[in-house]
Amino acid sequence: MTVDLRCERAQRAADTGSAVAVQTRVLATLLLLFCCTASARAAGEYRTVEVESLKVTIDSEWSARTAPGYFPVRFDITNLGEARVIDIVGRGMRYFRSSGMRGGIQGGLEIQQSIRLARGDRVRFTLPVPILADHENLGFEIQENGRTLERLNFMGFESRLPAVDAAALIVADPSSPFATAAAGWRRTMASGTRTSMTGASGTVTSSGILVAPGAAGGARVPPLDFLLEPARLPANWLGYTSVRAVVIGTVEWGQLTEPQKTALLTWTACGGDLIVIDGDLQSLVPAARTAPPAGARVRAYFFGRIHVPTFTSILETGGLTGALAAADKAADTNWSLPANRAADWGIIGARGFRLPIPGVAGVPARTYLLILLAFSFVIGPVNYWFLLRRRRQVLLVLTAPLISAVFILLLGGYVIAGEGFGVRGRAMTFTMLDQVRMQAVTRASISLYASGMTPGGGLRFPRDVAVFPIGAEGDGSRAPHRVELSELQRYSSGVIQARSATNLEQIAFRPARERLNFTVEGNAIRVVNGLDSTISTLVYRTGNTKYALTAPLPAGGQAVLQADGRAAGVAVPADLPVSGRFAHLFANQPEGSYLAILERSPFWEPGVPRVEERNSFHLLIGWPGGQP
Question: At 362, is the pLDDT very low, low, confident or very high (cuts 50, 70, 90)?
């Protein structure tokens, strides 16, 4: 009888587990089908609502297939009433297509921005929404004093595609001949040979394409790339991080506002491919040091490239497919956008850190377990036996809280004595500095470890810095995120947590007055350090000769560079997973440039004040005469 009862219970448990598994698969199927169906058009909506003296236009139409980065949601708000403060609140759920227990919906996202409006004010702005999961759903609300005025529709899209599968943006005026031609250039999503699931809406292939029921193997699939008219382009560069490239005609380029042009050029400087059909390199590249060679059709612009193919060449090379193939040949994938093009994207080192931090060995679980066992033994058997011997069992209600307080103090003291409350970090940064344009762009890999407690307020970055929280697994943070954009880009929760690894990728572009000044003195060159940091290694190449620093140079100091080979060469610490990125640069240092390794870098944003850096590596390439 007992055996039969056990078997029955086991069978019920198995049936329950099977039902849960089926429900999970059904939910995943519905989410995948919903997101893939949206791929037939741009995700999002474009509409205007009027509510309580507010006229709000939301434009969230963007690609439904993106790379990790930001999703730009454009708002145009007019206040017809009295002065007020409203909040734009976005909420969403994230789905990671991962195996095992880590699969399925993992937390969510909440993003908020406050807008102060005077009577009659009209404001236009782009809300950059960080995206990083396989599939995401996102909706917005307009709130005032905690009260919801209007709810806007939810949208679904894919957001962790490889760069080669991400959509390209084509900017075209609907009334221009370019728009008609460009619509036919769009690539289609290449169908896979193996299907992953079938539903009432059709079959979803292994590459994430929805094919209608009964469609043949060569069925027509929706376009991958999408079109927007010039007036609807974001005025914030972060939104472009989720697309593979931007294609625009010369007429459409002239229709852009200055903020839109600045956003596109900033994105290009950070690693993007800007393709301007029949464009002029000399006028497109700001403050170029030299004119491009005759017939040149591509030019480097910091980490990115500006391409100016002719309309005829686009037709001859197969439309956008050929243009992107040509762009890929000119790209250095280590620094090109989308950010996940890098070969070492998402590689995690020891103990869950992208860059292992010396002296941080993770949570001392064995010590905590011993303290917990000692606490359990003392508060239980020892405490009871002691009071029983003295016939004072009634005092158990007093001794138990007292012992608990002692152990809490013991545990807290151990944590404080062992690690304190600071934030330790390690960063690998690479900066390009153009001293003529007085601009710098930095790409950084960062690992942080918060000892004792989570930093108050979370992580704070400037609004125009791209931040990619890749988590302890390297493929995106699963924790629920809350992002506030009223003044800064503040991750108030979810990204950094006490006593756990925090990994970030970061891209920043900013004005820069830092510089090195070089003066020729006979066979040597004198350098003055205006980089606001001590230089440990410096190699300057001019006239096909390399001049090197023989000793560290403090900020504000000056020294004489020698061309006698006595100085050490540039090297990257071997334990950095990104060390291979620089091999080509070291072997082929550009003419008229210098390579400097800094003890600390003023060009990156750690997100928290007073980070204790350990074994960071900061490399800078600068052009005293401007980037060629």
Answer: low
User: Given its phi and psi angles, is residue 448 left (phi above 0), alpha (psi -120 to 50 degrees) or beta?
Assistant: beta
Between residues 6 and 474, the one the model is more confident about: 474
Q: What is the pLDDT of residue 544?
A: 83
Q: By C-alpha distance, which of 59, 178, 211, 194 is closest to 126?
A: 59
pLDDT tens digit string along 120-177?
999 999 999 999 999 999 999 999 999 999 998 778 888 889 999 999 999 999 988 8
CA distance linking residue 313 with residue 328, whole number of Å: 16
Q: Which of 8-17, 363-372, 454-463 has the highest mean pLDDT?
A: 454-463
- The Cα-based distances of 100 to 35, 96, 97, 104, 477 in angstroms read 22, 11, 10, 9, 16
Peptide bond just before 130 cis, omega within 30 deg: no
What six digits make up the tokens of 296?
Answer: 């040149």
**Over 80: is that where the pLDDT of 443 sits?**
yes
Q: Which residues contact 390 (CB under 8 A, 6 or more apart)?
A: none
SS (H, E, C) 325-355: HHHHHHCCCCCCCCHHHCCCCCCCCHHHCCC
- What sign does the dihedral 537-539-540-546 (CA atoms) show? positive
pLDDT of residue 62: 94
Residue 325 CB neighbours (<10 A): 11
Nearest-angstrom CA–CA distance, 24 and 22: 5
d(CA 330, CA 622): 21
In 3D space, the residue among 71, 87, 74, 84 whose CA is nearest the CA of residue 47 turns out to be: 74
Rg of the chain over Cα atoms, rounded to whole angstroms, equals: 29
What is the token pair recorded at 604? Answer: 């990156």
Give me the helix-helix angle, 365-377 and 396-419, nearest 10°. Answer: 160
Which single residue is written with the structure tokens 């600071």?
422
CA distance 627 to 302: 8
Q: Delineate the domains of the chain, giving CATH numbers in brackets.
A: 41-161 (2.60.40.10), 226-334 (no CATH), 346-628 (no CATH)
Looking at the predicted structure, is the pLDDT value of residue 194 above 50? no
Apex 512 CA angle, 337 and 613, nearest 5: 75
Laid out side by side, the sheet with 210-211 consists of: 195-199, 202-205, 210-211
Across the range 350-376, mean pLDDT stands at 80
